[in-house]
Specification:
Blueprint: H1 5-18, E1 25-28, E2 43-48, E3 66-71, H2 79-98
Parallel strand pairs: 1-2
Antiparallel strand pairs: 2-3
């Protein structure tokens, strides 16, 4: 049996984000406490909202709301270095998400 569109999208997003060399790790996470010492930094966590059991929930109408969290360690260089790294990562993540032809056919509005 083929995977659902939701599972295909999640796997493809994880694959696309893992290809960004500046990220230490990409993880699918579902709202539990995160022990950052267990993950290579900078660490990105990707998860979708839980669905309600309503007849017209997001999944039924074809909407998946994604959340991305990125954790970056503070370096001895201070806040300026942190801000530069955060801005650079934000741009790389944005470009990876909107510039990927592999998601076409799976998602419409990213």
């Amino acid at each position: 049996m083929a995977d659902s569109v939701k599972i295909q999208v999640m796997r493809k997003l994880e694959e696309i984000l893992a290809a960004i060399p500046e990220l230490g790790s990409v993880n699918r996470w579902h709202g539990n406490a995160i022990d950052l010492e267990l993950f290579k930094m900078p660490a990105l966590f990707l998860y979708e909202e839980k669905e309600s059991r309503d007849k017209r929930n997001r999944l039924a109408v074809g909407v998946i709301r994604m959340h991305l969290m990125v954790f970056i360690p503070l370096s001895p260089a201070g806040a300026v270095s942190f801000n530069d790294l955060a801005d650079n990562l934000q741009g790389k993540i944005h470009n990876a998400l909107i510039g990927t032809a592999e998601l076409k056919g799976l998602v419409e509005n990213l």
